[in-house]
Amino acid sequence: MPTVTIALGGILILLGVGGYVASGMASATALIPAGFGVLLGVCGVLARKEALLKHAMHGAAVLALLGFIGTASGAIEVVSMAMGAEVQRPQASIAKAIMAVLMLVFLVLCIRSFRAVRLAREAAAKA
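RESULT FIELD:
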């Protein structure tokens, strides 16, 4: 999972910087995905050290949850746009929707990983 976390961080940095440039560098809020990307990248690098793995990955999962909660409205706006509605800032809505999906997928992967580790630990204790 540390490698996945670092990769997701890189993707979010690209999303943030790309959104910022695409918006004509008019809004610094377009860099929010890049901020999450940097934090997730740091968590991924820290998680490569066995002693920090558990804490760093739980921190990454919390970041993913916060990122999803903060951007889920973008997914709703994109669905509205697909049904013909107009939104105020379509580029921002699309960027938020992409981030929401990435964060949700990552969060699901984290939960599955945490569960697998717990089950393996319990099986080892019984043996």
